[in-house]
Amino acid sequence: MKRTSLYDKHISLNAKMVPFAGYSMPMSYTRIIDEHNAVRNMIGVFDVSHMGEFKISGKGAESFLQLLTINDVKKISTGQAQYSALCLTNGGIVDDIVLYHFEEYYMMVVNAANIKDDYNWLLKNSNEDVFIENISENLNLISVQGPKSAVILNDVLDCNLNQLKYYNFIQLIFNGDSLIVSRTGYTGELGFEIYGNSESIVSLWDNIFDYKKLKVMPVGLGARDTLRLEMNYALYGMDISRSINPIEAGLGWITSFNKGDFIGRDALLLEKNENHKRRISFEMLERAVPRNNYDIIVNGNIVGKVTSGTQSPTLDKGIGIGYIHVNHSSPGTEISIDIRSRDKLAVIVNPPFYKYGTVNNSI
Amino acid sequence: MNVPENLLYTDEHEWVKIDNAIATIGITDYAQGELGDIVFIEFPNLNSKFKKGESMGTIEAVKTVSDIYMPISGKIVELNDALNDRPETVNNNPFNNGWMLRVQITDMDEVSELMNSKQYITFIS
Question: Closest partner residue to A289 among B33, B36, B39, by Cβ?
Fold first, then answer.
């Protein structure tokens, strides 16, 4: 089992550690609900060093990424990041990614469980004008999320993040090392993801927890899941996979058909006009918690499956993501979820479940 | 790990306290730790009868769901309704205020099949 540079910190904080994508990662330090609320109301800090990063350079880098990713790489300039995906020729999602545009190169951030598959997929489709380097082992990542996250980072990093816009990033020097500070996250709150070498990230972690003016909580994978679910953010391996395409998954907004050819384009164009399954978001009308693989029922028939679900700590009710035939997928439609052999009523809603996140707020 | 000496235990991580023919039932400190944040408990109906080992309720936690198994055959005679409003009591205080229900025991011979605290400590270690 691999360990991140912050492993000793998690152990000294009495974290409940679980295996995740080959790493021993913190599930929670105290209570998932308390950690969740810390991010919604104040500041929470996540170790997400298990995430993968590739450096993509060379004179063919941009055209290569236009071909491999579904979003339009030309929409981002230096200092900007973009949510996107890699697809198979048949449209199935290889991974969802964040692409960073640096002056001389791009950085692709990928899901930990997919590092090897993604790397092989990129290599297979590359050419002599592109250099792809897996820098996952050298790069550590912490995510500082919550309405007060800019306050603490401005102090600790001695910088001013107040003008940094959503999905923009800067590079700065901290203790003599270079850090990437990106206004991104997976929680729906104002927040920043900070990439650096292990020494600087461990030092930053210590500085954040030594900060006395605001209360900061460490947050594990448990609350990471409840926070992203309340925002209806997809999780690879649960809500999206190689057998789901971006159109079905509600990711048409990152699928740029106008940019020219890309891998999966033909299949996705067809899918746009077909009536297949669609991703839905639903809330339970009865006290019950939907979970992965539960059946979705309409008029006594199984019409789909739940892919993710939880008890929303903020809404205090069951919420879920699933797939259902497009005919049944409009918001307002009542459905049932087969929860341990009992049908429990739910209703399809417009996402996100939690509508008061600070993610886009000015600082 | 807290394992009170005066209680009996099952391999499904329930604890049982016997007072005459009434068994008070809850889940152990180990069980609540494994489940994490408990969000609600689905109780059986009062006066319903279950055999030892039958599933009679569920515990929904944020991350997972677990059955509650009958540690001993009998009839449900009391539910801890306070857990409806404060299910986290099971996390905070599993052996006292976090008790779940009381059962009228139908076969006292089954009591001897439960583990004592020493046996349970061995079981979870």
Answer: B39
Say if CB A106 and CB A165 are below 8 A apart. no
Mean pLDDT value across residues A243-259:
96
pLDDT of residue A100: 98
| pLDDT score of B1 more than 90 | no
Burial group, residue A210, by CB count within 10 angstroms (0-12, 13-18, 19+)? exposed
Among candidate residues B18, B14, B11, B22, the one with its CA nearest the CA of residue B41: B14
pTM of the model: 0.95
- What string of DSSP letters covers A268-289? HHHHHTS--EEEEEEEESSS--
CA distance A20 to A30: 19
A363 confidence band (pLDDT: 50, 70, 90): confident
ipTM of this predicted structure:
0.88
Inter-chain residue contact A287 with B58, CB threshold 8 Å = no
A235-249 in b/e form (b: 16+ CB < 10 A) is: bbebbbbbebbbbbb
pLDDT tens digit sequence for A14-58: 999 999 999 999 999 999 999 999 999 999 999 999 999 999 999
CB contact under 8 A, A33 and B62: yes
**Rounded to whole angstroms, how far apart are CA atoms A334 and A341?**
18
CA-to-CA dists, residue A244 to A109, A318, A330, A352, angstroms? 20, 24, 19, 20
Contacts of A225 in chain B (CB under 8 A): 63
Whether A273 shows a pLDDT value over 80: the answer reads: no
Q: What is the CATH number of domain B8-109?
A: 2.40.50.100
CA distance A328 to chain B (A): 28
Strand order of the β-sheet with B101-105 is B8-9, B14-19, B22-27, B101-105, B74-79, B49-50
- Minimum Cα–Cα distance from B58: chain A residue: A340
Which residues on chain B are in Cβ contact (under 8 Å) with A33?
A: 37, 62, 88
CB distance from B86 to chain A under 8 Å?
Answer: no
Look at A32 and B63 and tell me if their CB atoms are within 8 Å.
yes
The answer to whether A198 and A155 have CB atoms below 8 angstroms apart is no
